[in-house]
C-alpha cells in the first residue's frame, strides 16, 4: 500500500510491451475507522479492472463488469455476499486490536490485506499475499520459504503465530500458485474480448511551476495497464530527477499514468527534452513528445483534475484482500482454511 494508502499495491512493469501478455487477479480488503467512508470495502480486479465489489453500506457483493454478470449465477453472488459479510465482521473485530498494538485509541486508521496472482503468456506465474496497517507493511508471505515477514515490532506477535504452524503458509502457497491461476484463466475466458483489447494512449506534456519547476508527461485512455514513460535529454535516456506515479484507472476502464521530471528552466532552454511513451497498442512504435522551450502555463487545470482523480482512487483503493486471522485473546489468530468453492473465490480462498 505504498504512497500513503497504497503500500500494498503490486506494480508490474513489462519491458516487452509490444509482445508480452500478463494477466492478473487481485483482491483487496480494507477496514477503516475515524473517516466518513464505508468501514469495510472488498474489491476484486482482473488485469487492473474492477469486476466485483462489496462494502459495509450495501452489504452485498455486486458485479462491476458485464462479463462477470453474464457468466456467474445466483449461487455465486449469494456465496460472495456471505463471504463479504464475514470478512466485514473480521475487520471490525481486528482493527481495534491493531490499534492497540500501536498504542492508538482514536483517529483515522486502516487495516488492509491484498493478495493475488499473475500469469504470463509463456506460462510463468507469480503470487503474493500482503497485509498493511495505516499505509505501512504489516506482514507478508514469502512464498519461496513459506515463512511470514514482519517489518515492524508490532507485527511480531502475528508473525510468530503464523509461523508456529505451517498450515497457513502451505494453504496460501497452494492457493496462489494453483487455484488462483485457475480462477484467473476462467475470468479471462469470460472477458477475453474486453481484457485483451488494445487502446492507444493519448499523451501530453505540460509545465508545472509550483512548488518547484517541473515538467509532467501524462498518458491516459490506454489499455491494457502496462505502460512505460521515460525521458530523454538530447536523445540520451534520463534516470535522475524523475518521479513515476502509480498507474490509475479511468472511469471508462482505461488507465492513466504520469511521469514528472524536475528540471531548471534554464536547462530547458539549453537542451532538447522529450517524453517517450511505449505501450502494447503502439506495437514497435513509440510516442515521442518534445517539451516546449517556453514555460507555458502552470498546467493548473490539468494538475487539479489529476490530483482529484489520484485522491479519489487512493481512497477507493484503500481496499485489500481476504482475511485468514480471527480475534482471540490479545492478538491475531490464524483460522484453518475452509474448503474452496466457486462462490468463495474472493473470501477465505481468494
Description:
The structure is a single chain. The protein has 350 residues and is an alpha+beta fold. The protein contains 7 helices and 19 strands. It has helices at residues 66-71, 74-101, 156-163, 167-190, 192-195, 265-270, 300-316; strands at 22-33, 40-46, 49-55, 62-63, 109-120, 125-133, 136-142, 147-149, 202-208, 214-222, 228-233, 236-238, 242-244, 248-249, 255-262, 273-278, 287-290, 325-328, 331-334. The chain has an 8-stranded antiparallel beta sheet. Strand 3 and strand 4 form a beta hairpin. The relative contact order is 0.18. Mean pLDDT is 81; it is low at 1-19 and 296-350.
Cα end-to-end separation: 19 Å
Give me the count of strands.
19
- Tell me the helix content: 25-40%
Give, in order, the helices and strands: EEEEHHEEEEHHHEEEEEEEHEEHEE
Q: Reading side by side through the largest sheet, how are the strands ordered?
A: 4-3-2-1-5-6-7-8
* SS field, number of helical segments: 7
Strand portion: 25-35%
Rg on CA atoms, Å: 22 Å
Structural class: alpha+beta
Largest sheet: 8 strands, antiparallel
Average pLDDT metric: 81
Residue windows where pLDDT falls under 50 for at least 5 positions: 1-19, 296-350
Tell the overall outline.
Answer: globular
Amino acid at each position: 500500500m505504498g504512497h500513503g494508502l497504497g503500500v500494498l499495491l503490486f506494480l508490474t512493469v513489462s519491458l516487452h510491451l509490444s509482445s508480452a501478455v500478463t494477466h492478473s487477479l487481485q483482491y483487496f480488503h480494507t477496514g477503516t475507522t475515524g473517516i466518513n467512508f464505508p468501514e469495510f470495502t472488498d474489491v476484486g480486479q482482473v488485469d487492473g479492472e474492477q469486476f466485483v465489489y462489496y462494502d459495509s453500506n450495501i452489504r452485498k457483493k455486486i458485479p462491476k463488469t458485464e462479463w462477470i454478470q453474464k457468466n456467474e449465477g445466483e449461487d455465486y453472488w449469494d456465496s460472495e455476499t456471505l463471504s463479504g459479510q464475514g470478512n466485514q465482521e473480521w475487520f471490525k473485530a481486528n482493527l481495534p486490536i491493531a490499534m492497540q498494538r500501536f498504542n492508538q485509541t482514536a483517529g483515522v486508521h486502516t487495516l488492509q490485506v491484498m493478495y493475488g496472482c499473475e500469469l504470463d503468456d509463456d506460462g510463468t506465474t507469480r503470487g503474493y499475499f500482503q497485509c498493511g496497517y495505516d499505509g505501512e507493511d504489516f506482514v507478508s508471505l514469502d512464498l519461496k520459504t513459506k515463512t511470514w515477514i514482519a517489518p515492524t515490532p508490532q507485527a511480531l506477535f502475528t508473525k510468530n503465530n503464523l509461523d508456529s504452524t505451517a498450515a497457513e503458509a502451505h494453504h496460501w502457497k497452494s492457493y496462489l500458485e494453483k487455484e488462483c491461476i485457475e480462477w484467473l484463466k476462467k475470468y479471462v475466458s469470460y472477458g477475453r474480448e474486453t481484457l485483451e483489447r488494445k487502446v492507444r494512449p493519448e499523451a501530453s506534456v505540460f509545465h508545472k511551476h509550483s512548488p518547484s519547476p517541473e515538467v509532467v508527461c501524462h498518458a491516459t485512455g490506454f489499455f491494457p495497464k502496462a505502460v512505460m514513460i521515460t525521458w530523454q535529454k538530447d536523445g540520451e535516456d534520463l534516470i535522475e530527477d524523475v518521479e513515476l506515479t502509480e498507474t490509475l484507472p479511468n472511469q471508462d476502464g482505461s488507465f492513466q499514468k504520469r511521469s514528472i521530471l524536475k528540471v531548471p528552466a534554464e536547462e530547458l532552454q539549453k537542451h532538447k527534452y522529450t517524453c517517450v511513451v511505449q505501450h502494447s497498442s503502439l506495437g514497435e512504435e513509440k510516442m515521442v513528445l518534445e517539451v516546449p522551450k517556453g514555460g507555458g502555463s502552470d498546467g493548473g487545470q490539468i494538475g487539479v483534475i489529476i490530483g482529484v482523480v489520484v485522491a479519489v482512487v487512493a481512497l477507493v483503493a484503500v481496499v485489500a484482500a481476504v482475511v485468514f486471522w480471527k480475534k482471540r485473546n490479545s492478538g491475531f489468530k490464524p483460522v484453518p482454511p475452509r474448503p474452496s468453492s466457486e462462490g468463495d473465490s474472493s473470501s477465505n480462498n481468494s
